[in-house]
């Protein structure tokens, strides 16, 4: 713990800057030409800095949302058959696109004392030229160009075309943002660019495939039914621009099969996580089903052991954390890694979590929690069970009612009542042995549920998979009716407390109304229960089944 004496000394001897009217806009030259007009893209950058003769560190915030968004059509999620069943792509359907920029709290735009605050429009958005490319290297290089300019390695121009140099910058940069704005810091950090000292991605994406897909299935980000990468590009682009370039996204993102294709592999930052040199402070909400929590967990796990890192999981949804201590840690993180202040933030345990079922955030040294151990929940006793899909008409939440009653549309398996309050932590692994009876493609949905007797259950976490991808998530295969397969996939990670007397349940269904495509009802699936169908999880007490 940092002593109060140290904190007071830091406050007393830190320089205090008065924010004067030093505001300017420049256009930084990127190395890309995303609209193929023969001219390098220009990234619009606005600088707000205090009046001082000292060279300043920088907090950079980059966004594709500075000018709002466009009205547009969403993809239709209601289909006769899954597209991978008949190679038929879903049509477009008019929906209302709620602004993605409205999730950002004022804290993200707060000016930090003692820094130059720099705001940039991502390539092809706002006042930047070029075309939005939704997460690929061209967008990454636009962000990198801004950091290069702050370090004297790139050119920028004012509105008169005169070159402008960042002589006021000391070259040390921190980045912060929520959602897409938090994804951009991850993107540029994977380049290892010199000068980027620290990033704080909040509710951010580390792999775009896991945002719009899951284990071979097309899956909606929570709250945005029918959205996809092309829709996001159309939303942020300057009005009536880049139609040809954005159509290429529609043609190559593979909505007709859901595979982890080259389009998504180019937008996977985990494979470059070891190249990140900046100190990484990740924050994510356990109730975030838009950008799901695995995005933070998997990056935290993929970072090099030598990279300074910190993880904060809070109880909120897709937002800036409301936790009062978080903002203080933001200041400490940037002051330590960008300014070089010895304030003790690097001495804290690397993980701080508000566990579901508790209110107070606690620090821990490992993920999953160090007190938990692996357990296996075998599903059934070897019998063959059949479920019939009606998910296009009923939300998954309706399937957790009356769990002990027979229901032809789902299977439920429950533990015995817990003997103690039990901590569950980490990522549950699923293996199902199954066959499709009357279709060649199907959605598979599995959820962990908190039950108590035959009362309505509460879904804790869930996951989805395509049986056609049982061998390889990069490429599926068409299945024959009755073909028996083993399907392995992971649920979304969580840390939660289940109270004594409650029961851990496993729900198996097909279509998840709120997330997957919704084919017509009637898909029949056989589940082969017993030792070849199970869920692995971690808990700190032995669960009886």
Describe the overall structure.
By secondary structure, the chain is α/β, with parallel strands linked by helices. The chain has ten helices and 27 strands. The radius of gyration is 25 Å and the shape is globular. It has helices at 4-13, 83-86, 137-150, 180-189, 209-212, 229-236, 243-252, 262-265, 294-302, 324-339; strands spanning 22-29, 42-49, 56-63, 73-75, 78-79, 92-94, 116-121, 156-157, 169-178, 196-202, 213-214, 217-218, 279-285, 309-314, 351-353, 362-364, 373-388, 411-414, 422-426, 429-436, 444-451, 458-465, 485-490, 494-498, 503-509, 518-519, 524-539. The model is unreliable at 1-20, 87-99 and 101-106 (pLDDT under 50). The strands form seven sheets. The chain has an eleven-stranded mixed β-sheet with strand order 8-1-2-7-3-9-10-13-14-15-16, with helices on both faces. Strands 17-27-20-23 form a four-stranded antiparallel β-sheet, with no helix packed on it. It folds into two domains: 4-342, Rossmann fold; 373-539, Jelly Rolls (Sandwich), CATH 2.60.120.260. 50% of the residues are buried.
């Amino acid at each position: 713990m940092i002593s109060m004496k140290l904190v007071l000394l830091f406050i007393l001897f830190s320089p205090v800057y008065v924010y004067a009217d030093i505001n300017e806009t420049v256009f930084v030259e990127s190395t890309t030409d995303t609209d193929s007009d023969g001219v390098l893209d220009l990234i619009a950058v606005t600088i707000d800095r205090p009046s001082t003769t000292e060279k300043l560190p920088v907090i950079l915030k980059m966004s594709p949302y500075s000018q709002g968004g466009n009205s547009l059509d969403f993809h239709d999620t209601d289909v006769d058959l899954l597209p991978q069943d008949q190679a038929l792509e879903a049509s477009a359907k008019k929906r209302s696109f709620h602004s993605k920029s409205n999730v950002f709290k004022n804290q993200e735009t707060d000016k930090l004392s003692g820094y130059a605050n720099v705001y940039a429009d991502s390539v092809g958005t706002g006042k930047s030229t070029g075309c939005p490319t939704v997460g690929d290297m061209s967008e990454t290089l636009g962000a990198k160009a801004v950091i290069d300019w702050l370090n004297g390695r790139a050119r920028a121009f004012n509105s008169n075309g005169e070159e402008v140099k960042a002589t006021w910058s000391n070259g040390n940069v921190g980045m912060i943002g929520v959602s897409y704005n938090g994804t951009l810091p991850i993107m540029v950090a994977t380049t290892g660019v010199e000068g980027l000292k620290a990033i704080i991605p909040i509710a951010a994406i580390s792999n775009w495939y896991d945002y719009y897909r899951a284990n071979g299935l097309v899956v909606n980000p929570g709250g945005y039914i029918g959205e996809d990468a092309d829709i996001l590009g159309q939303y942020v682009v300057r009005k009536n621009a880049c139609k040809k370039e954005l159509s290429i996204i529609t043609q190559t993102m593979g909505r007709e099969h859901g595979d982890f294709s080259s389009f998504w592999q180019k937008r996977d930052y985990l494979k470059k996580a070891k190249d990140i040199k900046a100190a990484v402070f990740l924050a994510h909400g356990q109730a975030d089903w838009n950008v799901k929590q695995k995005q933070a967990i998997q990056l935290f796990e993929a970072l090099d052991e030598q990279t300074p890192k910190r993880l904060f999981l809070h109880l909120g949804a897709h937002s800036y954390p409301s936790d009062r201590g978080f903002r203080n840690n933001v200041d400490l993180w940037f002051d330590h890694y960008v300014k070089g202040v010895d304030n003790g933030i690097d001495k804290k345990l690397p993980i701080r979590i508000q566990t579901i079922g508790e209110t107070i955030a606690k620090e821990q040294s490992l993920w999953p929690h160090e007190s938990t151990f692996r357990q296996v929940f075998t599903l059934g006793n070897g019998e063959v069970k059949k479920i019939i899909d009606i998910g296009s008409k009923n939300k998954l939440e309706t399937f957790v009612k009356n769990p002990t009653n027979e229901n032809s549309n789902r299977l439920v398996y429950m533990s015995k009542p817990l003997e103690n309050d039990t901590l569950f932590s980490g990522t549950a692994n699923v293996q199902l042995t199954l066959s499709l009876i009357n279709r060649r493609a199907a959605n598979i949905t599995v959820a962990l549920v908190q039950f108590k007797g035959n009362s309505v259950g509460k879904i804790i976490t869930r996951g989805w998979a395509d049986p056609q991808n049982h061998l390889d998530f990069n490429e599926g295969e068409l299945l024959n009716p009755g073909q028996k397969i083993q399907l392995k996939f992971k649920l979304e990670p969580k840390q939660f407390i289940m109270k004594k007397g409650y029961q851990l349940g496993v729900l198996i269904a097909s279509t998840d109304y709120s997330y997957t495509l919704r084919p017509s009802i009637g898909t029949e699936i056989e589940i082969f229960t017993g030792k070849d169908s199970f869920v692995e999880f971690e808990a700190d007490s032995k669960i009886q089944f």
